[in-house]
Amino acid sequence: MAPLINISEPKSVAQPPPGFALWQLGFRPFYLLASIFAALSIGLWALQFAGWLGQPYLAGPVWHAHEMLFGFTLAVVVGFLFTAGRTWSGQPTPTGISLMALAALWVAGRVLVLTPFGWAAAVVNVAFPLAAAVGLAIPFIAARNQRNYFFVGILVLMAAAVLGIHLAQLGVTELPGWIGIQVALDAVLFVMAVMGGRVIPMFTNSIAGAKATKQAWLEKAVLGSTLALLLADGLKLHGLLLSLLIGFCAAAHFARWTLWQPWKTLRTPLVWVLHVAYLWIAVHLLLRALAELGWITASVATHALTVGAIGGLIIGMMTRTALGHTGRLLKASRFDVTCYLLVLASALVRVMVPLWVPAQTVNAVLLSAALWSAGFALYAVTYWPVLTRSRVDGKPG
């Protein structure tokens, strides 16, 4: 079986050779674009939420959810898959002009949702995940890498979800666009469940004294219940049965996490950040089960997933894979740790303050947005030279 990500830690830090390398591998442009976008867009949303800005084509929460999923999150997923996909398949993934064209398509999607041109925004935002799916399918099929075919299916599902959102927004269908948002959230949750199960135990076991383990039945319970939740949301199911399914899924994810011995990673920031982020998945599911029963608002559950789990896993993986795939030491700097703390603090503020002090929700959104923006802005500034320069070991990629 091919390794998940081919990251070998150098014995010393070399100086990066001259040369512009942004288009040499998928993680480079998409990590950089996503971090810049995360820093800017969440601030704009906070100002809109507070009533200080006008509303774009995708107004209010729909714009915010759309951009965090199909802008920020999808960019990182595509960058990661193009990078890891080359290792999994042993085949080239988009680079150079084709990678540049995909990045331009993504940028066009971010701009068009802020214009009156709804149909153009819809076409471009559907085209991006479909184009990415083609870019990933070609090397997978060439290598007969069947184990990872489902990632192509996930990208196609994301295209279908964003199409549903835009058709609802344009009045073509009466189905609410929020179904597309929820399906996309569940699809991302499934990707995190798969990738978390692959990389977090592996990275944990690189620490002396740690022994992360897996149980086959529990792995099936985690992935099976996560897929069942995606199906239930696609069918618009609600009520006690859905709450029970979500609760079971939460318990399975938490049990899985405990087998990975997160307490053994406290002195290794590159690993503990992934453990903390994964724990947010169980917190999200627990809160969502309570929201389904009407005990709390659904917003806090959603933001436990988007800010805590998605944000935390993304900032953790963006630092680790950027270091590894540019030939640098796999050791978190003080800037990396600051990024982790800012993003995770953003999650705590966004979830816990509205949960316990609802009257302070607007202030919590503003503070959470400031923390989030600072974390990803710091990443963009710190990793600009890492992502745009050639590998320090002179290897391609």
Walk me through this protein's architecture:
- With 397 residues, the protein is mainly alpha-helical.
- Helices cover 72% and strands 0% of the residues.
- The protein is globular, with a radius of gyration of 20 Å.
- The model is unreliable at 1-14 (pLDDT under 50).
Describe this structure in a few short sentences.
The chain has 397 residues and is mostly helical. The protein has helices spanning 27-49, 60-89, 96-112, 118-143, 149-169, 178-204, 216-234, 240-259, 269-292, 298-324, 334-356, 361-388. Helix 2 packs parallel to helix 10 and helix 8 (240-259) packs antiparallel against helix 9.
Helix content: over 70%
- Work out the radius of gyration: 20 Å
* N- to C-terminal distance: 22 Å
N-to-C SSE series?
HHHHHHHHHHHH
Structural class: mainly alpha
Give a count of the beta strands, DSSP E runs of length 2 or more: 0
**Which outline best applies?**
globular
Q: List the uncertain runs.
A: 1-14
Put simply, the count of helices is: 12
Largest sheet: none
Q: Mean pLDDT, nearest integer?
A: 92
Strand portion, in percent?
under 5%
Ordered list of secondary-structure elements with their pairings:
Elements: H1 27-49, H2 60-89, H3 96-112, H4 118-143, H5 149-169, H6 178-204, H7 216-234, H8 240-259, H9 269-292, H10 298-324, H11 334-356, H12 361-388
Keywords for this entry:
0% strand, disordered N terminus, mainly alpha, 12 helices, 397 residues, 72% helix
